[in-house]
């Protein structure tokens, strides 16, 4: 039963992370749109596919890197600090916003400039890792467990 719970939790976390990352990617692609017809076709046809592939690759990498968080000893420590993961997600969003600010500071700056690319990719991976490894607090799980056993009798 515990394995089913872990797989269900991982699939929900991965689904939420995928939707958020795809939305962020499409927003960044829309902000990088230059206004020509071929660029519009690329934006509509190819960017969603590239966003989905990049999101899946990022999620796979973050699952591999975050495997120790799903193990017993370190996992307990991480699960007790839910605000740490939420703070990481907020920091990732802040880094992405800062990269947009730096990109908009000069007319020639794009996402290929090294400082902007470093901020955007750091924010991307921090957001993905933090969202993928946010666990419900133990107090919430305990309350849900108590409610389930109380009403199942």
Automatic annotation (TrEMBL):
Superkingdom classification of source: Bacteria
Keywords recorded for this protein, A-Z: Membrane, Transmembrane, Transmembrane helix
Transmembrane domains' residue ranges: 7-31, 51-71, 83-102, 114-135
Full protein name: DUF4293 family protein
Species assigned in the record: Hymenobacter terrestris
